[in-house]
Amino acid sequence: MRGRHMHSRRLRDLEARLDDTERKVDQLENTLCGVVRELNEVSIAGPCKCGKALLIVHQQTVYCPQCQYRRTI
Ligand SMILES: [Zn+2]
Fold first, then answer.
1. CA dist list (Å): 34 to 14, 41, 49, 63
2. Better-scored residue on pLDDT, 65 or 5
3. Cα(20) to centroid of ligand 1, in Å?
4. All structural domains of the chain with their residue ranges
5. Each residue's pLDDT tens digit, 14-69
6. What is the distance in A from the centroid of ligand 1 to the CA of 17?
7. DSSP 11-59
8. For position 7, what pLDDT does the model report?
9. How far does residue 59's CA lie from ligand 1's centre (Å)?
């Protein structure tokens, strides 16, 4: 009985944290889109192979802000 209670509390806690994380990701995405709109020469491409960031396209160059990946297009 006590164990089950603990389990559902942990689940509720995880759900709350997931909701919070989703909200933060949405906020970051919307803010990033707004910033990119302001900067005409910058755009965002798909995720980098390192998995830590999305690629930034700027002046014919695609690069990752988190790893060394960089290539000219
Ligand atoms: Zn990378």
1. 30, 13, 25, 20
2. 65
3. 26
4. 1-38, 41-73
5. 999 999 999 999 999 999 999 999 988 999 999 999 999 999 999 999 999 999 99
6. 26
7. HHHHHHHHHHHHHHHHHHHHHHHHHHHHSTTEEEEEE-TTSSSEEEEET
8. 77
9. 18
The pTM of this model reads 0.71
**What are the structure tokens assigned to 64, written together?**
């990752």
How much distance in Å is there from the Cα of 63 to the middle of ligand 1?
8
In angstroms, what is the span from residue 1 Cα to ligand 1's centroid?
Answer: 47
Give the chain's mean pLDDT.
91
Distance 32 CA to ligand 1 centre (A): 17
Distance 62 CA to ligand 1 centre (A): 11
